[in-house]
Amino acid sequence: MEKRSDTFVKKFSGRFLAWFKQNIGILIGLAALMAIVSLFSESFFTASNMWNILRQISTNALLAFGMTFVILIGGIDLSVGPLLAFSGVFAAYVMGNLGWPIWAAIAGSIILCSMVGMLNGVIVTKTGIAPFVVTLSVQQIFRGFAMLLAFIGFAFTLCWSAFGSLLGRLFSRHARVVNKIMALLLVSCAISLFL
What we know:
single chain; 0% strand
């Protein structure tokens, strides 16, 4: 009678060989690409370069791990990229402008993005709207939020002062109308960031 460990090894080796046979073309292409790049760069196969590559792909790998489960159940989530951008901008904003410690900024980003993901799921399950549509909308909304939060201290202040003073000089008699127009322009700009 075979031991359980022998059975596991046989199953694993059989699955690995099947995967290897299925992906042999991709693996050969990757090996050829690595060989070509190593010919042109002496530092390609160094440990520091390998760590640099692993560091750069870590974010995409973490997103891909999560997306694998979403795709396996037949769903789609298009909002992960802008949510990643928003979480980084949010953490930087609260640390730089509000004085939060780094652990609180990271925890706040994770909690905020988890709540948005939960909101996506609730909207999809309760309303029956396709996940593609819901997450595409959330993608645009949080892309706009990230842009707003990143430029909140610079772009809107600059726009308000430049256009407001220019239009105020041109229409000094109609200052109230100009202020209403500027308010409408700013609201339109904010709405267009979300669309």
